[in-house]
Design a protein that fits this description.
- This protein has no helices and 23 strands.
- The strands form seven sheets. Strands 9-15-14-11-12 form a five-stranded mixed sheet, with no helix packed on it.
- It starts with a strand and ends in a 12-residue tail after the last strand.
- The mean pLDDT is 85.
């Protein structure tokens, strides 16, 4: 063969000879009009193919992750919400929690150009700490997109170490202690008995807190002090102590 051409010419693809092979390659995305491959031999004989319509696509799918928000705290599952699109048609959509070692397929309708993913995914086997979910989409032409989203798994409740008061403390009693938790606290509160919870202010970045509280005011029965800690993942811990009034001194006996 000596010469090859497309007839009529196409701006979507081009045709070249590589020895005795015919190579058709991309020029721009789109759908060509019907065009034939015409090959001329050295003896000026022509061979014409039946018309072809070429669909060219070099643009990968778009993948948007709406949930979980980046850096969000989750407990034992996460809600994956994602929008995947490709005008040329989707080939496959999947997600992974182990950096791409294993992929879980998402069902697709034949010829779909978009897919809204909305799945509740269990994190039971995943250790507490930072994690990443990947969403992968490929189109009918083999173009591929992988979009990551980082989250933090925290399935552990905060630990309240209440150094004071000891259980059964009397009268004016300082309250102090510290919180141990993987992430940040959403709230730290206290209440006495069945009263309303009140915010504990002044806790330090390492989650130490001090709360002077008078338990000796007009209280004849023991009262329960409750400390409540809630972290950003929603894990909640309660720690209680029983405190009561100072005993009333007995009047001295009258001298005989």
């Amino acid at each position: 063969f000596k010469v090859i051409r497309l007839e009529p010419p196409s701006d979507a693809v081009k045709a070249e000879l590589d020895g005795n092979r015919v190579v058709v390659s991309w020029q721009k995305d789109g759908l060509s009009k019907p065009t034939s491959l015409v090959v001329t031999s050295r003896e000026k004989h022509e061979i014409r193919s039946a018309p072809f319509i070429f669909r060219t696509d070099s643009t990968p799918p778009t993948v948007r992750i709406d949930a979980p928000p980046g850096g969000s705290m989750v407990v034992d599952s996460l809600r994956l919400k994602s929008r995947v699109e490709d005008l040329g048609g989707l080939g496959a959509v999947s997600w992974s929690l182990d950096q791409g070692a294993n992929w879980q397929d998402v069902s697709l309708q034949p010829g779909a150009v978009s897919r809204d993913v909305d799945e509740e995914i269990s994190l039971g086997a995943l250790a507490d700490g930072p994690g990443i979910i990947l969403v992968k989409a490929s189109d009918a032409s083999g173009n591929e997109t992988i979009t990551p989203q980082v989250f933090i798994k925290d399935a552990s409740k905060p630990v309240i170490s209440l150094d004071s008061p000891i259980d059964g403390a009397w009268g004016f009693t300082p309250v102090f202690g510290h919180i141990t938790d993987l992430g940040r606290l959403a709230s730290l509160e206290y209440r006495i008995g069945d009263g309303e919870y009140q915010k504990i202010t002044g806790s330090t970045p390492d989650k130490r807190f001090v709360l002077p509280t008078d338990f000796g005011t007009d209280r004849s029965e023991p009262a329960v002090l409750t400390i409540r800690a809630v972290d950003l993942a929603g894990n909640e811990t309660l720690e209680t102590r029983t405190v009561q009034d100072l005993p009333t001194p007995e009047a001295p006996a009258e001298p005989i």
